[in-house]
Amino acid sequence: MTNVVQKNILVLNGPNLNMLGSREPEIYGTETLADIKDILVNRASDYDCVIDFRQSNSEGELVSWIQEARGTASAIILNAGAYTHTSIALLDALQTAELPVIEVHLSNVFKREKFRHTSYISPAAVGVICGFGAKSYCLALDALQDILS
Ligand code: DQA
């Protein structure tokens, strides 16, 4: 008998990512956040993974979700949006969660304004994937398979 252990992947999206599709499509593409969720859930069906996909414009809500992930999630994929470049609170929460974290961005933040080159949350991440649009999320899920196996 095979013992299949399902992994719960918490995918968190920060401020303004609910506007994808109409938000600066030349930078972020035309896919909506719902499209990205569908792509990721579809990809997760190739793996023994369940995707819990959420978005909030509130830093505090994101912190609470990360706190709750400890003990319930196997890993976190996080696009913190602009909080990436400002939030010590998110960094502290991620360091307390003691879970593998992959930081993702749709755009290549290093090709953009200088303030986007600094991430407060990278020190808590196993790795960072940016610049591949919706595919950044799928690449993060792929990377997690090795990390969680
Ligand atoms: C982003 C990049 C951030 O700099 C920006 O504030 C976002 C989106 C991205 O996915 O490319 O909101 O995280």
UniProtKB/TrEMBL annotation:
<protein>
    <recommendedName>
        <fullName>3-dehydroquinate dehydratase</fullName>
        <ecNumber>4.2.1.10</ecNumber>
    </recommendedName>
</protein>
<comment type="similarity">
    <text>Belongs to the type-II 3-dehydroquinase family.</text>
</comment>
<feature type="active site" description="Proton donor">
    <location>
        <position position="105"/>
    </location>
</feature>
<feature type="active site" description="Proton acceptor">
    <location>
        <position position="28"/>
    </location>
</feature>
<dbReference type="GO" id="GO:0009073">
    <property type="term" value="P:aromatic amino acid family biosynthetic process"/>
</dbReference>
<dbReference type="GO" id="GO:0003855">
    <property type="term" value="F:3-dehydroquinate dehydratase activity"/>
</dbReference>
<dbReference type="InterPro" id="IPR001874">
    <property type="entry name" value="DHquinase_II"/>
</dbReference>
<dbReference type="InterPro" id="IPR036441">
    <property type="entry name" value="DHquinase_II_sf"/>
</dbReference>
<dbReference type="GO" id="GO:0009423">
    <property type="term" value="P:chorismate biosynthetic process"/>
</dbReference>
<feature type="binding site">
    <location>
        <begin position="106"/>
        <end position="107"/>
    </location>
    <ligand>
        <name>substrate</name>
    </ligand>
</feature>
<feature type="binding site">
    <location>
        <position position="85"/>
    </location>
    <ligand>
        <name>substrate</name>
    </ligand>
</feature>
<keyword id="KW-0456">Lyase</keyword>
<dbReference type="GO" id="GO:0019631">
    <property type="term" value="P:quinate catabolic process"/>
</dbReference>
<dbReference type="Pfam" id="PF01220">
    <property type="entry name" value="DHquinase_II"/>
</dbReference>
<feature type="site" description="Transition state stabilizer">
    <location>
        <position position="23"/>
    </location>
</feature>
<comment type="function">
    <text>Catalyzes a trans-dehydration via an enolate intermediate.</text>
</comment>
<feature type="binding site">
    <location>
        <position position="92"/>
    </location>
    <ligand>
        <name>substrate</name>
    </ligand>
</feature>
<comment type="subunit">
    <text>Homododecamer.</text>
</comment>
<dbReference type="InterPro" id="IPR018509">
    <property type="entry name" value="DHquinase_II_CS"/>
</dbReference>
<feature type="binding site">
    <location>
        <position position="116"/>
    </location>
    <ligand>
        <name>substrate</name>
    </ligand>
</feature>
<dbReference type="GO" id="GO:0008652">
    <property type="term" value="P:amino acid biosynthetic process"/>
</dbReference>
<feature type="binding site">
    <location>
        <position position="79"/>
    </location>
    <ligand>
        <name>substrate</name>
    </ligand>
</feature>
<comment type="pathway">
    <text>Metabolic intermediate biosynthesis; chorismate biosynthesis; chorismate from D-erythrose 4-phosphate and phosphoenolpyruvate: step 3/7.</text>
</comment>
<keyword id="KW-0057">Aromatic amino acid biosynthesis</keyword>
<keyword id="KW-0028">Amino-acid biosynthesis</keyword>
